[in-house]
Write the structure tokens for this entry.
Amino acid sequence: MIVMFHQVLRMGLGLNRTRIVPMISTKYKTTSAADTVYPQFATLSTSYPIPHVLEIRLNRPDKLNAMTQLFFKECKTVFEAASTIDHHARCIIITAAGPAFSAGLDLNELTRAPPLRTDIDPARRGLMWRNVIQPMQDAFSAIEKCTKPTIAAIHGHCIGAGIDLASACDIRHASACAKFSIKEVDVGMAADLGTLQRMPKICGNDSLLRELVYTARVFKPAEAVTLGMVSKVAETNGPEGVREQALALSSVIAAKSPTAVRMLKKGASTTPPLSFLIQRSRARERERKQRNARNASWKTRSNLCQRVLLWGDSTFDGNPLDTASSIHLRAAGHSCF
């Protein structure tokens, strides 16, 4: 036992030339840029266009990347893997194949959902709808909670759930031909996959956001920049220009300390939204004014009580006090201080 203790001590002090090699699991070990931790997806594709930058591409171009239940399942899987298993990736860009970033939810599939059956009572239909919507919300929450920075490279149409996806990303770039629409109101739905919860934090123009939500009108990249939804617009119309722009930014981020970037993202993600900060500031201002008004009222009453009780002055601000008021103040003088 004593011999083993001395050996361990010598190794800890660096007196032996033998080095301890930690045991690392090779189940998810990445050996090159072409990682093998991701399975083959039906609606997504993954690649490493440059070192330490993972590209996740929406890969359903024939349907304008409309989102199905399978897409949401794969989306959650790939981002959870990128966050916890893939140690090679330091930054993630999200692109799309075809002429559009995303046309939103696949309404053809949604209309065949079990909750639309008319032979089920409303309470059970509501519960079934929750089971349909919850995986969709979890998929986009996986993007938001991903420990790696995410950049959305948007081109063409970005409609409905496409904006939900983009709002869950850290950074959004758009091509000059991009068109956006918060389309849910036109199909009689609520934007309940994250837009209404995340966009108030992203943008500082609450009035314009509400206008876009209530009208579902199409807005272009210049207005998206004004809104704060997009930080930069590529000069070209096609998808390659905005993709190259996103890759250039991701390469800069990937060159930084991954630990520092991860902690910075965690800190930025816990910052309250701008609308909340504004409302809190206004509430504090109202409380300050009310407190000052109360203090002024008590000061006035105190001065009045002092003049009546201590000096027997029957006037206040030049106005005579009636006998009943004087007697009342004298009797309740102890409560005026």
Notes: DSSP finds twelve helices and ten strands in the chain. The beta strands are 44-50, 53-58, 91-96, 150-154, 157-159, 171-174, 179-181, 232-233, 315-316, 319-320. The CA atoms of residues 8 and 16 lie 10 Å apart. The longest strand covers residues 44-50.
